[in-house]
UniProtKB/TrEMBL annotation:
Domain SET: 71-325
PANTHER family with a match to the protein in the record: HISTONE-LYSINE N-METHYLTRANSFERASE ATXR4, HISTONE-LYSINE N-METHYLTRANSFERASE SMYD
Keywords: Signal
Cellular component per GO, a single term: nucleus
Gene label: LOC105162472
Protein name: Histone-lysine N-methyltransferase ATXR4 isoform X1
Source superkingdom: Eukaryota
A Pfam family: SET
Organism: Sesamum indicum
Length: 355
């Protein structure tokens, strides 16, 4: 399961919380102070992944007078689900709260020749690479430049077996791990970049499948001229940790319909293939908790940049929550998917009334 761009039309939601014993609170606080430290570490290296609403730019040459104000949110501890995102002022319905760029993203295998290999923007027909070819395309020189380092690493190896394995098994997350590994080898990110995110607890079945994937990834790199010291991080333990975080935190990217042509291809895609153009992992969007009647949603308009928008008026101090799944499903289906996919029993107001 991955979090998706689920539209919602449900009514009012307020923060639901339960009383926890002080001792439980203390142990949680200790656990999350580790994450708070990680967040601070990440703040400097990943500030570029968070951008602000309006037409402000964040260039270093800007004077403080013209600097954008930070987004109207803060990360804090909830009483029921670890960290969460809270409104630091009143937010109006429809407001763009912030945008975020991914730490790692990858097109779905069915979209790899029709979208930009970096930002997942749909390519005009003339710019698409041939399906039979091993090449990929970029929508702009900017995306090509931003991909250069990891793509130079990726090009050193032959990915046909790895991709075929993912295709046959219907796997999408190993593609994100492959891209992350290329980013680490090229020095663009550090191997612990996802450590800040909450991991899932893997089942034994998952662990044995994962061993196969990591062996395939290692064999693919070993066939290239990448030095073993550059690949030293790529252990079973690293792969398991990264996959456990991707499984809980990846978003499935469906671009908003921009044209009549998009509408037609989406209609065809829903019959022939997956409608999602790819998957991506972000820092801040991954800190939003779930509600079956959310007050914010995340949309992707033209590319992988996530836009977090208020679905209704939100009061200062209220927790901002998104819906991880299709909110139109019934109570039982939602509970099952949330438990199997994300490991929790939802007790939002809507679920409490079994709606
Ligand atoms: C994407 S993370 C959200 C941020 C997370 N709270 C953290 O501290 O990193 C998803 C995880 O948060 C927890 N979570 C999110 N929404 C929840 C809810 N409504 N009830 C209980 N746990 C929830 C679950 O453990 C879930 O797997």
């Amino acid at each position: 399961y991955s979090m998706g761009p689920w539209a919602t039309t449900y009514k009012l939601s307020v923060l639901s919380s339960s009383d926890f014993h002080t001792s439980q609170r203390m142990s949680r606080l200790a656990r999350y102070s580790f994450w708070a430290l990680q967040l601070r570490k990440l703040h400097s290296s990943h500030i570029a992944t968070l951008s602000f609403p309006s037409s402000f730019s964040t260039s270093a040459s800007q004077s403080t007078a013209t600097r954008p104000s930070p987004p109207p949110i803060h990360v804090g501890l909830t009483e029921y689900a670890g960290r969460g995102v809270f409104a630091s002022r009143r937010i109006s319905a429809g407001e763009l709260i912030h945008t975020a760029q991914p730490i790692v993203s990858h097109p779905s295998l069915s979209s790899v020749h029709t979208v930009c290999y970096f930002c997942l923007r749909k390519l005009p027909s003339s710019a698409r690479s041939l399906e039979a070819s091993q090449t990929v395309s970029f929508c702009s020189t900017q995306c090509e430049d931003q991909s250069k380092k990891f793509y130079d690493v990726e090009k050193k190896a032959d990915w046909s077996r790895f991709n075929e394995y993912c295709r046959l098994q219907g796997l999408k997350y190993p593609l994100l791990v492959k891209r992350l590994a290329c980013q680490v080898i090229s020095g663009v990110v550090s191997s612990d970049v996802l450590d800040i995110l909450q991991p899932e607890i893997p089942s034994s079945d998952r662990i044995s499948k994962m061993k196969k994937e990591v062996a395939l990834l290692n064999n693919t790199f070993e066939g290239s001229d990448i030095g073993s010291e550059q690949m030293a991080f790529l252990t079973e333990e690293w792969y398991a940790g990264v996959l456990a975080r991707i499984r809980i935190n990846a978003f499935r990217i469906e671009l908003a319909i921009g044209s009549y042509e998009d509408l037609l291809s989406l209609a065809a895609a829903s019959v022939e293939a997956e409608a999602a153009v790819g998957n991506a992992v972000y820092v801040l969007p991954s800190l939003y908790n779930h509600d079956c009647d959310p007050n914010v949603n995340i949309v992707w308009i033209e590319n992988v940049d996530a836009k977090v928008k208020a679905l209704r008026d939100i009061e200062e101090g209220e927790e901002l929550r998104i819906c991880y799944i299709d909110a139109s499903m019934d109570y039982k289906a939602r509970q099952t998917i949330l438990y199997e996919g994300f490991g929790f029993h939802c007790n939002c107001l809507r679920c409490a009334s079994k709606d």
